């Protein structure tokens, strides 16, 4: 096999690997930008250690407009209402 064919095959493999390396790096950069844009804010509604999901959701909507509420365990058998919304 002539030397220039071996060189062409080597260059072809290198170009192929370089293309995928650039594709991978750009994909990671785009994902980092998307993750950064989805920053979430949190707030808590004080309570007595018990939490009702329906009440928590309505309280979050009143205290933090546009938020969603969920009951979160803080200690054994103790819960608090946590509100979550997209930071802007």
UniProtKB/TrEMBL annotation:
Classification via Pfam families: SLR1-BP (PF07333)
Signal peptide per UniProt: 1-37
Family: Belongs to the DEFL family.
Any GO BP: killing of cells of another organism
Superkingdom to which the source organism belongs: Eukaryota
Disulfide bond keyword on record: yes
Xref: InterPro entries: DEFL
Record key words, sorted: Antimicrobial, Disulfide bond, Fungicide, Plant defense, Signal
Protein's UniProt name: Defensin-like protein
Keyword ATP-binding set for record: no
């Amino acid at each position: 096999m002539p030397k220039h064919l071996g060189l062409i095959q080597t260059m072809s493999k290198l170009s192929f690997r370089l293309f995928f390396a650039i594709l991978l790096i750009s994909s990671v950069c785009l994902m980092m930008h998307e993750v950064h844009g989805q920053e979430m804010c949190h707030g808590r509604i004080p309570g007595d250690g018990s939490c009702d999901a329906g009440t928590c959701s309505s309280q979050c909507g009143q205290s933090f407009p546009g938020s969603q509420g969920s009951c979160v365990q803080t200690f054994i058998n103790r819960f608090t209402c946590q509100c979550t919304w997209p930071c802007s």
